[in-house]
Design goal:
The protein is an alpha+beta fold and 189 residues long. It has helices spanning 26-41, 70-77, 80-88, 121-149, 156-182, 184-188; strands spanning 13-19, 46-52, 61-67, 98-103.
Length: 189
């Protein structure tokens, strides 16, 4: 059985949605979030989602949804299921939701607050290098021990594919979302 190819970085698409929730309606909104997030995850190409909750009442909720292609993102954004779910919260919002689409791997550096700017490119490149370089050394070394015990998985191309797949999964799902939040002050200075 063949494994589907990993998306190329330039194909990745991110949808940033902002909702300004009416005062006193956050509990209802949170329950709605609990219903809509699993629905978005069921759509083809969904790579992950983050909810950035407002620090105070005058800031919006920001939802960041990642998809493997712009087509899959558009399928979700234009779907009847999403439209019905968004219609359910119309009376909870003080303004219509805002949608912002970003194409490419720079989705890690999507500004999370209205009016914020993306970090300068050299900071994006430096942080990406600091994450990916150690992984390209550590993951293949650790993987070598595992693959040595399972010889039928051997072969340079198979080893390389497994290593790259693990690095991509670690970077996209675990490391970069956390690291960009942790270093947000430095990235946006």
């Amino acid at each position: 059985m063949s494994t589907p190819p990993l998306p190329r970085p330039e194909e990745l698409a991110t949808l940033v949605i902002q909702h300004w929730v009416a005062h006193g309606r956050t509990e209802e909104y949170e329950r709605w979030l609990g219903r809509i997030m699993p629905v978005s995850q069921s759509f083809p190409g969904h790579l992950g989602a983050n909810v950035i909750r407002p620090a105070d009442l005058d800031q919006p909720y920001t939802i960041v949804l990642r998809f493997d292609t712009i087509e899959h993102l558009e399928d979700w954004a234009r779907s009847d299921r999403r439209k019905r779910l968004v219609a359910e919260i119309a009376d909870l919002l003080v303004a219509p939701d805002t949608l912002d689409v970003h194409i490419g791997a720079a989705f890690w550096f999507t500004p999370v607050a209205a009016g914020s700017k993306a970090p300068v490119r050299w900071k994006q490149a430096l942080l990406t290098l600091m994450v990916i370089y150690p992984l390209t050394v550590i993951v293949p070394a650790l993987l070598g021990f595992v693959l040595a015990a399972i010889p039928w998985l051997g072969g340079r191309h198979v080893d390389g594919f497994i290593a790259v797949a693990l690095i991509v999964i670690l970077v996209v799902y675990q490391i970069m979302p956390r690291l960009t939040r942790l270093l947000a002050g430095w990235l946006t200075r």
